[in-house]
Design a protein that fits this description.
The complex is a heterodimer.
Chain A: H1 2-13, E1 20-24, E2 28-33, E3 36-42, E4 51-55, E5 87-91, E6 113-123, E7 128-138, E8 144-155, E9 162-172, E10 176-178, E11 184-189, E12 201-204, H2 210-214, E13 221-227, E14 233-240, E15 250-254, E16 258-262, E17 283-285, E18 290-301, H3 306-321
Antiparallel strand pairs in A: 1-2, 2-3, 3-4, 4-5, 5-11, 6-7, 7-8, 8-9, 9-18, 10-17, 11-16, 12-13, 13-14, 14-18, 15-16
Chain B: H1 2-7, H2 14-21, E1 29-33, E2 37-42, E3 45-51, E4 60-64, E5 94-98, E6 101-102, E7 128-138, E8 143-153, E9 159-170, E10 177-187, E11 191-193, E12 199-204, E13 216-219, H3 225-229, E14 236-242, E15 248-255, E16 265-269, E17 273-277, E18 298-300, E19 305-316, H4 322-329
Antiparallel strand pairs in B: 1-2, 2-3, 3-4, 4-5, 5-12, 6-11, 7-8, 8-9, 9-10, 10-19, 11-18, 12-17, 13-14, 14-15, 15-19, 16-17
The chains are: A mainly beta, B mainly beta.
């Protein structure tokens, strides 16, 4: 009995010492939080860009918030847009070339590649863990246009949520223009239960609801609610840091469970928000210019109603914006 | 293919063996009766299964397959596939039921629920459509007919309606799957079908029929998708999709000209769900203002019968509907 008690007290004490652990593999890095699988950084050498897939709830179990296809396809899953791989970073119009819909199956001739180079930091830890990587944005002609330095920080607390930050630095090796466009820069494809046809809904800080109410609109954050296959109502919130270019950003949103926080989206969103018609959010970088962009993602057990959700996520955003 | 063989409980060689022993050129509809289901083969290939086990609260046809063997129905919850949508477990392939039926003994002013009656539904008003017997199982060369009897039983256990359902499956055209449903509802007690959105023949299609995933539904007036077809009158509805294996397929349902309230109003949800509804009128006013002053409530006196006929056509996308429609209307 004493032994059982000591084992019980040991296992009870574990959650108090949360931990982020990284496990390097040949094709990526497994990310574990508080002893549960959370995500996997895929270097994505064959598919045009590094990506995080899946994103799991604190259960670490079979109720991901990201769509399975095409990384780990399931027979009943949707099969559109194979470049939607969990959390991706890219842009559709960079000097006229496509660094977004650039997987090998995509049509279109002018595709660039975001080529993983190396891990620059792999630091697990008790309260947080930091994973840093270097990637090259390489033109169709094979020229290095941008160096991407991406630092991802994963937090263990609060234990009832999953929180991580992306700190992105893009450095121009040649003159680069991000056109005013819909598809940039951080994209997230959620699982079917987040689709608005399947009990999902998405809201912004103004209380705008679903694609019709949030697509192309400015907001410091977006939150998407769905009832996962585990039966739990989950929210996925994405925060645009107040110091980001063009904050509060405009968002690309499609009801099926796809969103992008987009610092380069201005008049490209005029069909959805007339106030965008006269904005030019194109961004030009000279050789050596750097652009820093920061985002936070929070995956949490969600509220049922829109006002409560907006209040809760607004509070979480305030912590990020400080 | 093997996925469907598993679903249908057939050994992988089943259809092959069938096609070897029976001339594959002749159109043929064959039934295989099991203890809680009937497997339906068309031209030597699995087409569907009628499920009627004791746990089944609405006898249903699931899956529905194209001539080449691809499912057009959602797998969940009858034969769930990983990744399937898991909403509305009462959406089981093709079902027959009604959302609100009032009888003499019900405890609920709004009637009882003979449609959203899955055990997982928390509502107290769930009523069952209980299979009684197969009344006819006639395999055939050009077509085969499967008849069954079911009782619509209130949540207090009283039989309100006797359902006689005759399903005729056709062997031609060989690249299509066509079947007719001839439904007779006989009132054991006086019952009233309420004017609600969810009646009477329902079909839940697979994810590729959802307009978020490339699907499309049209009606006879040229209305497209939920916004333009939900609650509107039409003699037919037609869904198209590109299935995950690339097969382009269309699934249509027809309302028979002799039916009550023809042409029906249709309950339609963009995710690939629809019902042909002889009782839903003002309940659709939100989607079609012309329904606002209509009342579709329908009462059957004790002993009275209601006959309703429908046709389902599963065909390669692009194939004209006219021939199928004319043939059905002439019956």
């Amino acid at each position: 009995v004493a032994l059982l008690l000591s084992i019980a007290s040991l296992s009870l004490s574990l959650p108090l010492h949360g931990q982020v652990r990284f496990d390097e593999k040949s094709d990526g890095v497994a990310i574990q939080i508080n002893s549960k699988p959370f995500s996997f950084l895929h270097f994505g050498r064959e598919v045009g860009k590094p990506h995080l897939h899946p994103l799991l709830t604190i259960s670490g179990g079979p109720d991901p918030v990201t769509r399975a296809f095409p990384v780990d396809p399931l027979p009943g899953d949707s099969t559109d847009s194979p470049h939607h791989r969990g959390l991706t970073i890219g842009a559709q119009k960079v000097n006229g070339q496509d660094f977004w819909e650039n997987d090998p199956g995509s049509a279109g001739p002018a595709k660039g590649t975001i080529a993983f180079q190396e891990l620059t930091a792999v630091a697990g830890g008790d309260d947080r863990g930091t994973l840093s990587m270097l990637a090259h944005w390489i033109s169709r002609e094979g020229r290095l246009w941008l160096v991407e330095r991406r630092t991802m920080t994963f937090y263990t607390n609060p234990a009832e949520r999953r929180t991580f930050d992306i700190d992105l630095e893009l450095e121009a090796m040649e003159p680069v223009t991000f056109d005013d466009q819909q598809n940039a820069i951080i994209g997230l494809r959620l699982a079917l239960p987040f689709d608005t046809h399947y009990d999902g809904w998405v809201a912004n800080a103004a209380g705008g609801l679903n694609e019709a109410g949030v697509r192309g609109r400015r907001s410091p954050w977006l939150v998407w609610i769905g009832i996962t296959s585990g039966g739990q109502r989950m929210g996925v919130a994405i925060f645009d840091h107040p110091s980001n270019l063009n904050h509060p950003t405009r968002w690309e949103v499609q009801d099926k469970g796809f969103l992008m926080a987009n610092p380069f989206g201005g008049r490209a969103f005029a069909p959805f928000d007339p106030t965008a018609a006269k904005e030019d959010a194109a961004h030009t970088m000279k050789r050596g210019d750097k652009l820093r962009l920061r985002y936070r993602i929070v995956i949490y057990p969600a509220e049922r109603e829109v006002p409560e959700t907006v209040g809760k996520v607004g509070g979480l955003f305030a912590q990020f914006g400080r | 293919m093997t996925r469907f063989h598993r679903r249908l409980g057939l050994p992988a060689l089943g259809p092959l063996a069938l096609s070897l022993c029976c001339s594959p050129l002749a159109a043929q509809v064959r039934f295989d009766v099991r203890h809680d289901s009937v497997a339906i083969d068309v031209n030597g290939k699995p087409f569907s299964v009628l499920h009627f086990g004791k746990a089944v609260r609405m006898p249903h046809l699931h899956p529905l397959l194209t001539a080449s063997g691809s499912a057009v129905t959602r797998g969940f919850p009858v034969a769930p596939l990983p990744g399937d949508a898991t909403d509305r477990p009462n959406h089981r392939g093709l079902t027959i039921g009604a959302q609100r039926v009032k009888g003499p003994t019900g405890s609920f002013a709004w009637g009882e629920n003979f449609f959203d009656n899955d055990p997982s539904n928390a509502g107290p008003d769930k009523a069952a459509i209980a299979f009684q017997e197969l009344a006819g199982v006639a395999s055939g060369e050009d077509s085969g007919t499967l008849s069954m009897v079911a009782h619509w039983i209130s949540h207090e256990g009283d039989v309100w309606l006797i359902e006689r359902r005759k399903m005729t499956f056709h062997g031609k055209p060989a690249d299509c799957r066509v079947f007719d449903i001839d439904l007779e509802l006989e009132a054991v007690e006086q019952v009233t079908f309420g004017d609600y959105q969810s009646s009477i023949v329902a079909l839940r299609l697979d994810l590729p029929f959802d307009d978020h995933y490339g699907g499309r539904v049209v009606n006879a007036a040229g209305g497209v998708n939920e916004a333009q077809v939900r609650g509107r009158r039409s003699p037919w509805l037609d869904w198209t999709a590109t299935l995950r294996n690339g097969e382009k397929v269309a699934v249509a349902m027809f309302d028979h000209p002799a039916n009550l309230d023809y042409p029906a109003r249709w309950q339609v949800r963009a995710k690939g769900f629809f019902m042909v509804n002889p009782f839903g009128r003002q309940s659709f006013a939100r989607f079609d203002p012309t329904a606002a002053n209509e009342n579709g409530e329908h009462t059957l006196a004790r002993g009275e019968k209601l006959r309703l006929r429908y046709r389902v056509v599963i065909r390669p996308a692009g194939r004209e509907l006219d021939g199928f429609l004319k043939e059905f209307a002439s019956q």
